[in-house]
Amino acid sequence: MSVSNLPVINPFNWGFHGTVKHIVGENGTVELYLKDGKETMGLEHFTSQNIPELKDGSQFRLNPLLFTGILQTVYLGAADFSQKFRVFYGREIVEYSDGGVSTADWVMNSWKNQYHFDDKTGRFDREKFDKDEEETHFKNWPRLHPRTRYMRQEEIDQVHSDDRPLIVVLHGLAGGSHEPVIRSLTDNLSRMGNGRFQVVVLNTRGCARSKITTRSLFTALHTGDIEEFLNANKKRHPNRKIYAVGFSFGGCMLANYLGRLGENTPLSAAVTLCSPWDMVLSTHKMTDDWWSKRLFMKSITHFLTRMVKVNMGELEVPDGSKPDHKPTVENPCYYTFTRSNLEKAKRFDSTVQFDNLYTAPCLGFSHAFDYYKEASPVNRLHNIKVPTLIINSNDDPVVGPEAIPREQASANPNVLLCETDLGGHLAYLDPENEPWATKQIAAFFYKFDELVR
Question: Does the model's pTM come out above 0.90?
Answer without folding.
Answer: yes
